[in-house]
């Protein structure tokens, strides 16, 4: 029996697309929240995302295990973050310049080492069929929720609690707000920022593994489409709040799903213009959050973009 749901297909397709497309945004933005709350910005996450996608896919091809791919992608991301953190700890080194260099380095070596894995097929990550209650195949497909999306929601809630109510969260906030206050408390700001950058890199690597091992579910050189950089804008939009990052990631994911949703219901004239929606949204967020007269609410005091 054919189910023709007409224009209802657009919001259903956007819902499914938002869940899928938002997952990399969610992991990268949560990693960046952790890094920026410690007082450092990491613009190299685009390179970390792409290298995580490649290393995760290659590992899954070689081992036959998608979860092994996720683990290796997280490890690769942590190494990238650690290198970034160590370099930024050196005197007279600019965080922004190092981030751009790491972005170019990560994408470059991912393209180089990833060429043999463009054709091979890797196992995919599992999904939870939350649309079992409906007999509409479109809704069932939209509510195929990947395990990493659920894990990302749990991570956002856990990180919000950690930042608010634990000693680790207090330490991160103190280091992010004032280097002098952190040193007066006997803390080592550079070490803490380096560890936070490494943890943030691990999250970005997991986001990359989602891209290659679930959606779109393959490895190629155009896989990321700038999601690592857009996630930095998402963090500003979410005011460095992990729970707000979850909502913002869904918003960005929905914007990214708009073009394919229109195409799925047969709108073929001009639908491709909506593929630019995430980039337009990113530009709008940066414009809306910038002001020469006021500091950004919730921004860590030591963050270089607030000075």
Report the total helices. Answer: 12
Number of domains: 1
Q: Tally the beta strands.
A: 2
Strand order of the largest sheet: 1-2
Summarize the model shown.
Helix 1 (9-37) packs antiparallel against helix 11.
Molecular structure report:
The chain is mainly α and 307 residues long. It has one domain: ABC transporter involved in vitamin B12 uptake, BtuC. 66% of the residues lie in helices and 2% in strands. Strands 1-2 form a two-stranded antiparallel ribbon. The longest helix is centred in the first third of the chain and has 29 residues. The model has no long low-confidence stretch (mean pLDDT 88).
Task: Sum up the structure in keywords.
two-stranded antiparallel sheet; 307 residues; single chain; ABC transporter involved in vitamin B12 uptake, BtuC; 12 helices
Annotate the secondary structure layout:
Blueprint lengths: L8 H29 L7 H19 L2 H23 L6 H20 L12 E3 L7 H6 L1 E3 H19 L1 H11 L1 H6 L4 H25 L13 H11 L4 H23 L12 H12 L19
Antiparallel strand pairs: 1-2
């Amino acid at each position: 029996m054919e189910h023709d749901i007409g224009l209802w297909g657009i919001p259903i397709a956007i819902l499914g697309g938002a869940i899928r497309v938002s997952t990399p945004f969610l992991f990268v933005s949560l990693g960046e929240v952790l890094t920026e709350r410690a007082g450092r910005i990491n613009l190299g996450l685009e390179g970390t995302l792409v290298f995580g996608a490649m290393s995760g896919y290659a590992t899954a091809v070689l081992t036959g295990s998608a979860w092994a791919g996720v683990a290796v992608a997280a490890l690769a991301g942590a190494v990238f973050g650690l290198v970034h953190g160590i370099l930024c700890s050196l005197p007279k080194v600019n965080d922004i310049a190092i981030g751009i260099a790491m972005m170019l380095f990560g994408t470059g070596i991912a393209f180089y080492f990833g060429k043999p894995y463009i054709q091979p097929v890797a196992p995919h990550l599992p999904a939870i069929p939350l649309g079992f209650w409906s007999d509409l195949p479109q809704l069932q497909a939209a509510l195929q929720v990947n395990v990493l999306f659920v894990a990302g929601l749990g991570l956002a809630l856990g990180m919000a609690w950690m930042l608010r109510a634990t000693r680790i969260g207090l330490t991160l906030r103190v280091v992010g707000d004032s280097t002098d206050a952190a040193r007066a408390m006997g803390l080592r700001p550079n070490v803490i920022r380096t560890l936070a950058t490494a943890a943030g890199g691990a999250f970005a690597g997991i986001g990359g593994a989602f891209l290659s091992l679930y959606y779109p579910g393959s490895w190629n050189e155009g896989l990321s489409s700038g999601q690592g950089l857009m996630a930095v804008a998402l963090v500003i939009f979410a005011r460095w709040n992990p729970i707000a990052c979850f909502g913002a990631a869904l918003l960005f994911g929905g914007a990214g799903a708009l073009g394919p949703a229109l195409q799925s219901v047969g709108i073929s004239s001009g639908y491709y213009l909506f593929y630019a929606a995430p980039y337009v949204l990113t530009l709008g967020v940066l414009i809306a959050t910038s002001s020469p007269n006021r500091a950004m609410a919730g921004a860590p005091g030591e963050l270089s973009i607030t000075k």
